[in-house]
TrEMBL record:
InterPro entries per the UniProt record, alphabetical: AB_hydrolase_fold (IPR029058), Pept_S9A_N (IPR023302), Peptidase_S9_cat (IPR001375), Peptidase_S9A (IPR002470), Serine_Peptidase_S9A (IPR051543)
Record keywords: Hydrolase, Protease, Serine protease, Signal
Peptidase S9A N-terminal domain mapped to chain residues: 29-428
Protein name according to UniProt: S9 family peptidase
Annotated SUPFAM superfamilies: alpha/beta-Hydrolases, Peptidase/esterase 'gauge' domain
Domain Peptidase S9 prolyl oligopeptidase catalytic: 488-701
Keyword Signal: yes
Gene3D superfamilies: alpha/beta hydrolase, Prolyl oligopeptidase, N-terminal domain
Keyword S-adenosyl-L-methionine in annotation: no
Superkingdom of source: Bacteria
Residues in the signal sequence: 1-22
Length: 705
């Protein structure tokens, strides 16, 4: 690697500034080229930056540090602006706050935050909301001394006496399970390391089931049984998944009667169950796995209820007797519909609630078990999101659901399914004089390259909007069938109040428009995701919702792949792009089965050991398609300890872009040396990352304060 001055770039900039001299930015880091040939299918790729995958190599750390210093130097003139943005983001947050309590097994559970604390308190009250509060987990105290701290989950034993919880202190999503008494002072010494964080109690109040990750793929592949008071070294392996394209998980049914082990891949699933009162029983398979057969299981009384794509592209709802669980016994309850995607369902004693997706929007459908009468909830907005929330009790006529839109803060609502009365239990409070009437949300439809209509959700501040003149922040994800549903963001107000139009492109690869929407954006149709996004950007400009020279794009993880692809295809569309923890070295990663998560992704991207998929991936992989052309300004972020997208993908991509691009636009790489895929863990600390991203685009848009 070419050496730099002994003084860091940031130190140079600070020194010159302190001397009141005009700061001239240093040259950007120049990664050493060490050619490596990668050959398959009689084709050879030359990778000059392959060496960057050595996480422990001092040369790699030095390079990443140099890039960080360079980013700090380039962005130094925005430091005060970043502080201002951060302060206003924090000022909108109600620091002392509390979630809506949810009743489960005789207790009300909730979380709350106090003052400037980065983390919440997890609490409960017995029998009544007027009862004395019991703080189960004091996370602000527990997090002291850690640069990163996260509670994965917690679970209470059936007799309500013992709390099991999981914590991650490394940002690698490797959780340690611990136990504490909720009755008396007993402290348990049991610790279970390297788990996925999930905890499932049997009904004997001493046995828990948990999953662990494969050491290479990082996919959960084993389910263990732990008995309280014994060494975790003696835990019994109750299930091991041998197929490295599948992952496993565990849960207890809402009825509290069964322990379920689920196994899933991109296109197939399988479930096993035992009686929760008999944790030493042998698990029974409900329906053996078949390729392209997906299903999920709930339980009520004498039946299992099943959401499945069995002979149903958009999924349907079935039920089957507990004693006869294979698919030939399944009885249809809600049929497949070509224009409606069945997302999920919730069972109550008197009602069935079905989550559906139609025309790109979520709907909640209520059906009375006895009469068969049904109705839909009316949300009254053009674009929004609604979802079934925590409903742990069967014997209730009240549905708790969540609601938000681009102009409506996140709300928790109780809906009486008999009287049809809605009660807003809580709406996110936005400090600083927020008035939703100052903002307008709209839904547009762009025409994709192949004629497909692609929905766009957008919001802007009414008094800041001038047709054809506003800067645009356009984001998308578009992979894994994960839908980019709209939501309210108090952080986003920092863009809207400065005249930005903020929009989400619901591109193919998500599941907004149903299952076919996902299938038209994966495998050998993946490029639809990228061309859809570019078409949405063009449409926003054509309709006057964005100035042609002020279009900015944001995408993270697989959405970062999207960012890399769109700027290779049509870089002229964008003034600036932010790629957060981007998956950009598609071919090399998918060929390396030792990299975490690779094997489980073959049904999403394809297996490049098959030449057809290799050639197709190679045609869009952002890293492989960097060329000598002008690119927009770029801010690329990653985490050294990222377990989802390895840091070297964005590092290699930036190095290659820096070598080949023909423009003078900023190209910045920011590596968080402490955190992983999700970034910082504290509720305020993570806003510093948002402030950096916002300052980057606002500065490019000519907005300085």
């Amino acid at each position: 690697m070419k050496t730099k001055s002994i003084l860091s770039i940031a130190m140079i900039a600070m020194f010159l500034a302190s001397c009141n001299q005009k700061v001239s930015l240093p040259d950007p880091p120049d990664a050493q080229k060490i050619p490596k040939e990668l050959s398959i299918h009689d084709h050879t790729r030359l990778d000059n930056y392959y060496w960057l995958n050595q996480r422990e190599d001092s040369a790699v750390i030095n390079y990443l540090t140099a890039e960080n210093d360079y980013t700090d130097a380039v962005m130094k003139h925005t430091e005060e602006f970043q502080t201002k943005l951060f302060d206003e983001m924090v000022a909108r947050i109600k620091k002392t706050d509390e979630s809506v309590p949810a009743k489960s097994n005789g207790y009300y559970y909730y979380s709350r935050t106090e003052g400037d604390a980065e983390y919440p308190l997890y609490c409960r009250k017995e029998g009544s909301l007027e009862a004395e509060e019991h703080i189960m987990l004091n996370v602000p105290e527990m997090a002291k001394g850690y640069s990163y701290y996260n509670i994965g989950s917690y679970s209470v034993s059936e007799d309500n006496k013992i709390l099991a919880y999981s914590e991650d202190t490394l940002s690698r999503r490797k959780y340690t399970i611990k136990f504490k008494s909720l009755k008396g002072d007993k402290v348990y010494t049991d610790e279970i390391t390297n788990t996925t964080g999930g905890i499932t109690w049997a009904s004997d109040n001493k046995t828990v089931f948990y999953t662990v990750k494969h050491p290479e793929t990082l996919l959960p592949h084993k389910v263990y049984k732990h008995v309280l008071g014994t060494s975790s070294k003696d835990d019994e392996l109750v299930y091991e998944e041998k197929d490295n394209t599948f992952y496993t998980f565990c849960y207890k049914t809402k009825s509290r009667k069964y322990i379920m082990i689920g196994v899933s891949s991109t296109v197939s699933s399988e479930y096993r169950y035992i009686d929760a009162n008999k944790p030493n029983s042998k698990f029974k398979v409900i329906q053996p796995r078949e390729r392209d057969l997906e299903y999920g299981i709930a339980h009520y009384k004498d039946h299992f209820y099943i959401r499945t794509n069995y002979q149903a592209k958009n999924f349907r709802m079935m039920k089957t007797p507990v004693a006869k669980t294979t698919k030939e016994n399944w009885i249809e309850m809600i049929p497949n519909r070509d224009d409606v995607f069945l997302s999920n369902f919730e069972i109550f004693k008197n009602y069935l609630v079905v989550g559906e997706r139609k025309n790109g929007l979520n709907q909640l459908r209520i059906r009375n078990w006895d009469s068969g009468d049904e109705h839909y909830l009316d949300f009254g907005e053009e674009t929004y999101d609604a979802w079934i929330s925590a409903n742990p009790e069967f014997d209730s006529d009240v549905l708790r659901y969540g609601y938000t839109s681009l102009t409506t803060p996140s709300s928790t609502i109780d809906y009486n399914m008999g009287s049809k009365e809605k009660t807003v239990m809580k709406q996110q409070e936005v400090l600083g004089g927020f008035n939703k009437d100052n903002y307008e949300a709209k839904r547009l439809w762009a025409t994709a390259k192949d004629g497909t209509k692609v929905p766009i959700s957008l919001v802007y501040r009414k008094d800041k909007f001038e047709k054809g003149k506003n800067p645009l922040w356009l984001s998308a994800y578009g992979s894994y069938g994960s839908s980019s549903d709209v939501y309210f963001s108090s952080v986003r107000l920092s863009l809207l109040d400065r005249g930005f139009v903020v929009a989400t492109a619901h591109v193919r690869g998500g599941q907004e428009m149903g299952r076919y929407w996902y299938e038209d954006g994966k495998l050998l149709k993946k490029k639809n995701t990228f061309t859809d996004f570019n078409s949405c950007a063009e449409h926003m400009v054509a309709e006057g919702y964005a100035a042609k020279d002020k279009v900015f794009a944001w995408g993270g993880s697989a959405g970062g792949l999207l960012m890399g692809a769109i700027i290779n295809m049509q870089p002229e569309l964008y003034k600036g792009v932010i790629a957060a923890v981007p998956f950009v070295d598609v071919v090399t990663t998918m060929l390396d089965e030792s990299i975490p998560l690779t094997t489980g992704e073959f049904d999403e991207w394809g297996n490049p050991k098959n030449k057809e998929y290799y050639d197709y991936m190679l045609s869009y992989s952002p890293y492989d398609n960097v060329k000598a052309q002008d690119y927009p300004a770029l801010l690329v972020t990653t985490g050294l300890h990222d377990s989802q997208v390895q840091y070297w993908e964005p590092a290699k991509w930036v190095a290659k872009l820096r070598d080949m691009k023909t423009d003078d636009n900023p190209l910045l790489l920011k590596t968080n040396m402490d955190f992983g895929h999700g970034g910082a863990s504290g509720r305020f600390e993570r806003l510093k990352e948002a402030a950096l991203e916002y300052a980057f685009v606002l500065d490019l848009a000519g907005i300085k304060e």
